[in-house]
Amino acid sequence: MEYDPHYPTILPEFIALSLVFVLNILIPVSAIFAARRLKRRRWLPHTIAFLWVFFSPLTLAILTTPTMAADEVGGPGGGFTLLPILGETPIVLVFYAIVLLSLRAKRQNPAPSHLPS
To answer: What span, in angstroms and rounded, lies between the C-alpha atoms of 41 and 38?
Structure first.
């Protein structure tokens, strides 16, 4: 992944890919901690985190799509940068849903206290 100055992008591909990879993990984790601190609207951080992860391939495409002339066509490997994020997105969303469901189950079914018989 070399940066080509003739086709400028918002961010170089390697920086944008790394940034989106890391944010796809950090945003859901921070949403879990933020929702624990809120008294009302605990769903809001989770909604924002879900939307970020769901639309992260689009965000990466916007950040790394080079500026080209109107009559110019992209090369044969133009969309390969999106493949890692397209693979990471469903994994993160499924894992996030499992964690949220387990946290909800723990909150609804508290562990019984150990009372001596």
So the answer is: 7
Arithmetic mean of pLDDT over the chain: 83
User: What is the chain's Cα-based Rg?
Assistant: 20
Note the pLDDT tens digit of each residue in 25-81. Answer: 999 999 999 998 988 888 899 999 999 999 999 998 888 877 666 666 666 666 777
Please say whether the beta carbons of 67 and 8 come within 8 A: yes
Q: Are 7 and 65 in contact (CB under 8 A)?
A: no
| 8 A C-beta contact, residue 64 and residue 9 | yes
Measure the CA–CA gap between 52 and 69, rounded to whole angstroms: 30
| Contact by Cβ (8 Å): 39, 95 | no
Burial 43-73 (b: 16+ CB within 10 A, else e): eebbeebbebbeebbebbeebbbeeeeeeee
How many CB atoms within 10 Å of residue 81?
21
pTM, 2 dp:
0.76
